Amino acid sequence: MFEEDTIVAPATAIGDGGVNILRLSGPSALPLLKKAFRPSARLKDEFASHHLYHGQIIGPHGDVRDEVMAVFMQAPRSYTREDVAEIHCHGGVLVTRRILDQLIDQGARLARPGEFTLRAFLNGRIDLAQAEGVVDVIRAQSERACQLAVGQMEGRLSSLVSEFRDQLLDALALLESWIDFPEEDIERTDIERIASGIAEVRDEIAAAVATFEQGRIIRDGARVLILGKPNVGKSSLLNALLGQSRAIVTELPGTTRDTIEEGIFLEGLRLRLIDTAGVRVTEDEIEKEGVKRATEKIAEADLILLVLDVSRPLNEEDFVALDLCPAEKILVIGNKQDLGKSALPSPFSDFSSITVSVHKNQGLEDLKNAIVAFFRRGERSEAAEDVVIADRRHRDALLRTSRQLESALSGLGSEVPPELIAVDLQGALSALGEITGETTPEEVLNRIFARFCIGK
Ligand SMILES: Nc1nc2c(ncn2[C@@H]2O[C@H](COP(=O)(O)OP(=O)(O)OP(=O)(O)O)[C@@H](O)[C@H]2O)c(=O)[nH]1
Ligand SMILES: [Mg+2]
After folding, report:
1. Residue 377: per-residue pLDDT
2. pTM
3. What residues are paired with 53 via a beta bridge?
């Protein structure tokens, strides 16, 4: 998989800007740089590593292609741990492309997406979880997502994994001395030590896995569905939360036919709001399809704002809407309180509820707070060292680790030969290693690095 050639790509997004950076990595980085670059002050003889030089890029016919700054970073003190050179040229599309083409003509190969980071990983500068952190930092859409990603890039998850691994290796060492000297009856206390070490890791894994819903929402945002019977003010609520008139609002029931999605940020949380067709039994084909689409969105929603018109008695259609929703995702919104308000009957009264008037702009702040509180409930303290699992791949690997540990523990409790318990522990270690990349199958690696942009 690993190739020893020299790769090149723009490290900055190509478009008009102040500067673009072209990055070379591999054994010919320095020779290629020297060939293309003419320093403005005479270099004594070599590029000193990690020093920025001013000069020009000279084309194959002696023409000046741009005025640039250039830096050479000698291995292993570079992003990839290989020799790296960077040329900071002017930020135009054409000027950058001409220098890029020249470097390729002179022997560099255009890098594949993520190939620089792949090399950093293969050369052991960062592990896989850190490499994934790099993409997440680049892709982060909210401050909290960015914070989480930087933590992962800096190795927070990796060090947790390595703590788990050390603890399991200790247990495995005890177990192996038991395998090697079977005649010396293992002490009860040793078995207990092995078991308690394993149980401790299992519990810590469970605590980490429990942060996943939280982490996923921080990283990818939450889906908030606005649901209810026709004409209760769903589209009005969407517009009010967005602060713009996105969806059509009329006094006619059945106005919204399709689902309408828009993103907003609330206190650093990224939310996707989804307005839907009012739920009712209808003979209108278009509206029927709208109701079908609305109900399909329920499964993937993280929170459902069930909108009621509290100025009138509830009816059968409100109950139909309620019955569609999983109870743990419901926040009841009693709208149109400006027209009067009757108490919510059971079972609506069993849920958390907020009374609002979209028209009078009443209760909307309470609603926003309630939404934020819903997603922050059960959130652990935000201590710097806390790990939050945001990636499904990591969660799956932790769950598999945990299953192996359960099996080891039940083996220890029921006189299973130590060899078999060791197999469980090795399985657990291997599942853990998938997070940091030691045991990750190649096709998974390929899939992960393909998510990167070119030049990263
Ligand atoms: N008095 C009052 N009227 C409201 C309020 N919110 C919405 N309305 C009115 O209720 C009617 C229906 O509003 P919509 O936002 O279109 O309701 P909807 O739930 O999206 O309706 P469908 O798309 O048909 O399902 C409109 O005439 C709104 O102006 C409110 O807080 N108070
Ligand atoms: Mg509507």
Report:
1. 79
2. 0.82
3. 70
